[in-house]
Amino acid sequence: MRQEKQEPETNLKGTFASVLIVGVIIVVMWVAVYLLYVAR
């Protein structure tokens, strides 16, 4: 059995960045909907 060298830290950094970006987009959407609701 041969173990291939991987770089899990790089993958985790990319995953963390992606999750943060998606989270920020969701929060911005919720804030926009809330502000539209309050403005009516």
Strand content: under 5%
Helix content: over 70%
By DSSP (H or I, 4+ residues per run), the number of helices equals 1
Rough outline: rod-shaped
Low-confidence segments, given as residue ranges, are none
Biggest sheet overview = none
Distance between the ends = 65 Å
User: Mean pLDDT across all residues, rounded?
Assistant: 87
Fold and architecture overview:
The mean pLDDT is 87. The protein is 80% helix and 0% strand. The protein has 40 residues and is mainly α. It contains one helix and no strands. The termini are far apart.
What characteristics describe this protein?
0% strand; 80% helix; 40 residues; Cytochrome C oxidase subunit II; membrane; transmembrane helix
Secondary-structure blueprint:
Blueprint: H1 8-39
Quick overview:
The chain has one helix spanning 8-39. With 40 residues, it is an all-alpha fold.
